[in-house]
Specification:
Layout: E1 5-9, E2 13-18, E3 36-40, E4 47-51
Parallel strand pairs: 2-4
Antiparallel strand pairs: 1-2, 3-4
């Protein structure tokens, strides 16, 4: 299925990575897709949500 995403949680951030994309994404801020970082303090602790950009354009349908 081309529209699924994986979530990888690290101590200070969570990466949302598109499954089966046209490239292999690296679960870090240096991924070739140029991920977007969004802060989250809802738990009282600063964490980052890192949204990776798909090369197949699946975000356009969401």
């Amino acid at each position: 299925m081309l529209d699924t995403w994986s979530t990888i949680t690290h101590p200070k951030d969570t990466h949302h990575i598109p499954d089966h994309d046209l490239i292999d994404h690296q679960p870090d801020e240096h991924c070739i897709c140029g991920p977007t970082h969004r802060s989250d303090v809802s738990s009282g602790v600063l964490r980052w949500n890192v949204w990776h950009h798909s090369l197949d354009g699946r975000e356009d349908d969401e």
